[in-house]
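G., before I forget:
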Amino acid sequence: MQAAPTDHAAQTFHDGTYRKLGFSAQRLYPNEELLRFMGSYYFSLPLNERKMLRFLEVGCGSGANLWMIAREGFEAHGLDLSQEGLLLCEQVLARWGVNATLKQGSMIETGYPDRHFDAVVDVFSGYCFDDKNFNTYLDEVARILKPAGRFFAYTPSKNNDSFRDPGPSRMIDDSTLDGLHRPTSPFFGQYYPFHFTEPEEYEALLVRRGFSVLRNERIGRTYRSREEYFEFTSIHAQRGG
Ligand SMILES: C[S@@+](CC[C@H](N)C(=O)[O-])C[C@H]1O[C@@H](n2cnc3c(N)ncnc32)[C@H](O)[C@@H]1O
């Protein structure tokens, strides 16, 4: 699928880093908050029920989370803009001896049928948008989830030094910088729309789309020996019937 034009900067950046850094571009092991989501609703299910559940990771990148979803016995699908990321993802899946269906494309126009997935998970991927496209992305998540399907997102909050002190970065809208241009920012060098979402804002956007919010937390850490604070919103939600 052709990426939407507004995604081009994110695609160029991620293709470049996967090509240059290979597996060092991302983690090799799953995100801890995603494991908490899986543990909250899915790990108690027997294997015969797990294989009936269809999971999509949007922005699966090099597969650090997707291999775990497949290995735990769920039907795993991964979508990413970056072909270079997906090539690494294929290798990771093979290394763990598991299968997932991969697709190159944008999460704002996925091409999947309506009500197709039991769960959609987003680990630090649905932030590469301005506010308008972020809303389009959430419409798409609501469209492709089955009724009662669950959504997990882990995305930068605004309680964040990178957002409060953006240095030379420009605001595109109330929630988006044109990239992280301050050299001391933890994600310096990511020059594409970079969206920050407060837990309360995320909750309102999901409730408006018919979701109930199950959990909504702030997850923070420091960088440069506590000089710089970076925080994520970690949200679990369930689509209404
Ligand atoms: C920071 S990486 C995270 C990768 C993976 N979720 C992980 O935790 O290792 C962000 C990923 O989102 C992908 N991405 C960014 N914008 C996207 C979009 N509009 N549609 C699909 N993937 C996108 C990038 O190519 C990249 O692989």
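Residues 7, 10, 14, 26-27, 31, 58-61, 64-65, 79-82, 85, 106-108, 123-125, 128 surround S-adenosylmethionine (CB under 6 Å). The longest helix spans residues 8-21.

More on Monday.
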